[in-house]
Amino acid sequence: MDDFLQTVALLRARYQRPAGFNLFSVLRSSSDEVRLHSRFLAFLLDPKATHNQGTALLNLLLKRLGIQNFYLENSIVEVEYRNIDILVRNQSKQAVIIENKIYARDQDEQLWTYHQRIQAEGYDKIWTTYLTLDGSEPSKESRKSLSVKLISYEAEIIAWLKDCVPLIAREPGVRESVFQYIELLQKLTSSDQGEIYMSKLKEQILLGENLFVIADINHAFKSILADLQLDIWERMVAYQTTQYAQLGKPEISATKEAVSAYYKKAKNSKFIGLTFPFTFMKGGVYIELNHRLYVGYYCDGVQFPEDRERLLMLGREFTLTSRKSSNLFWRFSKFNVNLNAPSNEDLALLRDPNMRESIAVSLIDDAHDLWQRAHERFT
What we know:
Largest sheet: 5 strands, mixed
Distance between the termini: 63 Å
Order of helices and strands: HHHHEEEHEHEHHHHEHEEEHEHH
Low-confidence stretches: none
Structural class: alpha+beta
Strand order of the largest sheet: 1-2-3-4-5
């Protein structure tokens, strides 16, 4: 076993190249759904864009997604049309809705509402698609009874981009942009290991009893991730109890069992965390997990519309969110670690107990800040 691990370490040191310069990472957060991913994808799909390929790139994606008989001539591609991330439509009253989710969570009836909006405009053939890193399903509350086609960056989008390369080979700016975008997506989906390294690694795994050992290691790895995540939640509770008792005792859904279910990909295992209900109005502050940790306000708008509107207006005072947005304020942790499919950088942070403490402290500080803003305003 020691020889096997030593061999793997040597292979990694020899063949796994470090990440190089990537313009997308420099200009935008890699998880910026609208201003990075949606805009770049829409650029490639748009027949009128300066990639000079007309409808060819759009046609490649539609074929890969199994969308047939879509009339490509005079197609229009728009970003954020009536809050739809990407909308592709034509004069034949056909439309493709692409809802792009990197880490953001679904809103109630979101996909259903988008479909209804486009249908009300007279489109009689609508394909509603849901794009995520790994092909995850939307929530039942978002889709309702709507049929939704699942797309993943890891499978369909990276493969489509590679299909595009021969067509854009003579457009150096576009070609290099696509290459760098593929690298960014491979990093986001933890599929950025070099081909030679992976080939050599697979050879080693197939030797002797190594394959069975790897199965045990994979199970242990998930268990370790669960332990590290649970440690962060426990540190949050301990820090809040000593530093911000005024928040009250939290409602805890991030239990040991829930964290374990998360890594087993059990149904409805996302969105676990801590909730701090207000004592001075309805709603409260939460810290939640949807692959990455974030903090925000919550309030049931159906039961308590006035309190929700108050929190909505408060959030708009300290965020750049559009005035048209109906979402209550939320933001990611400044330690933007992917707890579902951690990169090497994420793993280096997670194994350090001081860093786990920093993550916990930062999130509780953020939650207290939101709580304090509401308390000062509404009491």
